[in-house]
Write a structure and sequence with these properties.
- The structure holds 2 protein chains of 2 kinds.
- Chain A is globular.
- In chain A, strand 5 (169-174), helix 7 (178-190) and strand 6 form a beta-alpha-beta unit.
- In chain A, 34% of the residues lie in helices and 17% in strands.
- The longest helix of chain A has 14 residues, at 25-38.
- Chain A is of the alpha/beta class.
- Chain A has an 8-stranded mixed beta sheet with strand order 2-1-3-4-6-5-8-7, sandwiched between helices.
- In chain A, helix 5 crosses helix 6.
- Chain B has 2 domains: 2-244, Rossmann fold; 252-378, 3-Layer(aba) Sandwich (Rossmann fold), CATH 3.40.50.920.
- In chain B, strands 3-2-4-5-7-6-12 form a 7-stranded mixed beta sheet, sandwiched between helices. In chain B, strands 9-11-10-13-14-15 form a 6-stranded mixed beta sheet, with helices on both faces.
- In chain B, helix 7 links the parallel strand 6 (131-134) and strand 7 (161-166).
- In chain B, helix 7 (138-152) crosses helix 9 (215-244) and helix 11 packs across helix 12 (332-338).
- Classes of the chains: A alpha/beta, B alpha/beta.
- The A-B interface holds A 52, 68, 70-72, 97, 100-102, 104, 127, 129-131, 133-134, 136, 145-149, 153 and B 26-29, 32, 35-36, 39-40, 43-44, 51, 53, 55-58, 81, 85, 110, 113.
Chain lengths: 265, 386
């Protein structure tokens, strides 16, 4: 990112940020800002909305107007913003705890209404801000403070959930896949209706150190080596071949143009 | 035996000793350490309970209500936004007369967002039908959990209760604390015997419609049970004292009140600071005392009237604000009512909101204001930022 772009979109007076050393959230923020900047949007016509959690601190560092709301409710607040002023570009930062747990109901209904928002979920698979409790995205067997011998309940696949609930655009990448993530966010911003981009992020403080990622790079390397492109997974399934259990899918899950709410044409 | 322990962990130990059968909670600062420790105890087999990881505080207390209705002893803990999100269920728990005990690590309410301490969260739910106990130090707030279960589960009470303590100031502080042993607690607090419960062999319905012909009386019954709980809590506190040597039979605790001209009234950890400030003022010849409120609901009006009888002015230190009210604090008007007709001046001072420190010199300044008949105000406003 050029110094000029950085200076335009970031509030340097708010630095240093609160994210831990090695956190993946900054990467996702930068990818988002690059995509927003490439859209030609301006500070005065763009708003960032968030709930509560590490991810939700992001709008505080961005120069646009922002609405830092209550835990899980970012999408409900963002819906109000968009309906009141459809000319605004509304981007929501959220996390797995905020979006999938306490805000799960708002998530499926925002997808169902297909309201014209772009939602970027930094999925660190744990409650980072409160110190590492199990979330609905903590994978089975992984350690958190509330699952000290491993999570027993299955995790949500947030991107599949967005597809099933009616979102016009849904994609998943990780903080390792920077170029792909920027492209996906750009596609989400361009697509009218509800766009959902899930970015898996490393969380060395709350997740990594409990789950055998001794170095930040080890979790990033895991995300690189265990990401399987959606097309490849489908090909393997068509060929009747096994998909390894420890792989997760990345890529664009849906791009469609169903009628959407809050689109001014 | 005294052990040095973090406040949250001392509460987790107390809860373990109470043998709840179901625990459910959601992470929220500054409560989280309590339920993290309980999750660990369940996972390690040290506590034979179901620990339900839920997706919100609303679900946490809903799961607790279900478990209690099914006949279990149940525990939860929360703070601030979490408690306010639970509010609908909080009223339902009281209405269905389920004796759930919940720890409240007191924290300010948004917006603006604050993770620091005041008592706005529990005071906002004072009318919900849960009794409310406030602890001054780690030992007191730990012991109050045993007493709360003992009183709540009595069949002539059947009310839920909050055990409130100041977030961070007590939840994250390490203090020497005596944790009772299991045998003694089992004798003090035997297995929970539900008054009624969901049972397929003898079906009942809970939480059904009450038409206007009946609803009024349901609310009356809850209030009557709350009034009876004063004696139940006192008896449970007395019995606890006989076994464990720490008596909690009193709902209000006076400090250097014998010849006091000005009396403070306060709840929670700030009472420690007030006592220190009183000692200093006494050295300077200023006759000041404190009446600490342990039980805020049911409100111990008679005890307060008796404790404050001889003073000329009362300074109520409020870590809450009843926005738009004449006295500003929520506690002050009840003190005023308790002293109705005595001519004693009662003044509220809203202080310490959102974690701002209350220092000994602030206590002294409030005593001065009360003596001059000034109060019912936000104390210590930073005029330069207004």
């Amino acid at each position: 990112m050029s110094t000029e772009t950085f200076g335009k979109w970031y509030r340097e007076d708010r630095l240093p940020h609160i994210f831990c050393t090695g956190c993946g959230n900054g990467t996702v923020m930068n990818c988002t800002i690059k995509a927003v900047d490439a859209m030609g949007w301006e500070i005065d016509d763009t708003i960032f909305v968030s709930g509560i959690g590490c991810s939700s601190r992001a709008p505080g560092y961005i120069s646009t107007d922002s609405l830092h709301t209550t835990h899980g409710r970012a999408l409900a607040f963002a819906t109000g913003v968009k309906m009141a002023n459809p000319d605004l570009h509304v981007v929501v930062f959220t996390g797995d705890g905020d979006l999938a747990a306490i805000g799960g109901n708002h998530f499926i209904h925002a997808c169902r209404r297909n309201i014209d928002l772009t939602v970027i979920c930094m999925n660190n698979m744990i409650y980072g801000m409160t110190g590492g409790q199990g979330s609905p995205c903590t994978p089975v067997g992984k350690i958190s403070t509330t699952t000290p011998y491993g999570a027993a309940e299955p995790a949500f696949d947030l991107t599949e959930l967005a597809v099933a609930a009616g979102a016009n655009y849904a994609a998943r990448w990780t903080s390792y896949h920077v170029a792909e993530l920027i492209k996906a966010i750009r596609a989400g911003l361009e697509t009218p209706g509800f766009s959902f981009i899930e970015a898996l992020v490393q969380c060395p403080t709350a997740y990594g150190r409990r789950n055998k990622f001794r170095q930040v790079g080890e979790q990033v390397e895991y995300m690189r080596s265990h990401a399987m492109l959606l097309q490849k997974k489908r090909r393997l399934e068509e060929q009747g071949k096994d998909v390894p259990d420890d792989m997760f899918t990345v890529g664009e899950f849906v791009r469609r143009y169903r009628p959407a709410l809050g689109v001014r044409k | 035996m005294l052990q040095i322990m973090e406040g949250s962990h001392a509460i987790a130990e107390a809860v373990r000793l109470c043998r709840p059968e179901v625990v459910s909670a959601y992470p929220i600062t500054p409560q989280t350490h309590i339920v993290e420790r309980l999750a660990e105890m369940v996972a390690d087999g040290d506590l034979n309970a179901e620990y339900i990881c839920v997706e919100s505080e609303f679900s946490a207390l809903s799961a607790c209500l279900g478990a209690s209705a099914a006949g279990s002893r149940v525990y939860s803990a929360t703070s601030s936004q979490g408690l306010i999100l639970m509010a609908e269920v909080v009223f339902n728990v009281a209405g269905m007369r389920q004796p759930i005990i919940m720890s409240i690590a007191n924290r300010a309410l948004g917006a603006p967002l604050s993770i620091w301490n005041d008592q706005q969260d529990s005071i906002a739910l004072r009318d919900s039908g849960w009794f409310q106990l406030y602890g001054e130090d780690v030992q007191e707030m730990t012991d109050q959990h045993f007493i709360a279960y003992k009183a709540a589960e009595r069949h002539d009470i059947l009310l839920p209760g909050f055990v409130c303590f100041d977030g961070f100031i007590l939840s994250h502080t390490y203090e020497p604390v005596d944790i009772p042993n299991q045998e003694d607690i089992d004798a003090y607090l035997p297995k929970y015997v539900p008054y009624n419960m969901l049972d397929a062999k003898d079906p009942i319905s809970m939480g059904m419609y009450a038409t206007p012909e009946y609803y009024h009386e349901f609310r009356y019954e809850i209030d009557q049970a709350m009034m009876r709980s004063a004696a139940a809590l006192s008896e449970a506190g007395k019995e606890f004292g006989e076994i464990f040597g720490r008596d909690y039979s009193e709902h209000v605790v006076p400090y250097r009140m014998d010849d006091a001209d000005v009396a403070f009234v306060a709840m929670g950890s700030i009472c420690g600071t007030i006592k220190d400030a009183i000692d200093e003022m006494r050295t300077d010849g200023i006759k000041v005392g404190l009446v600490k409120i342990r039980t805020y609901r049911p409100f111990p009006e008679k005890e307060i009237a008796k404790a404050l009888g001889g003073v000329s002015a009362v300074a109520v230190l409020e870590k809450n604000v009843s926005i738009g009210s004449a006295m500003k604090g929520a506690v002050g008007p009840e003190i005023l009512h308790a002293l109705n007709g005595t001519g004693i001046g009662v003044y509220s001072y809203v202080a310490g909101l959102g974690g701002r420190d209350i220092r000994k010199k602030d206590i002294r300044a409030m005593a001065d204001l009360a003596a001059q008949g000034k109060g019912n105000m936000f104390y210590g406003l930073r005029e330069e930022v207004l």
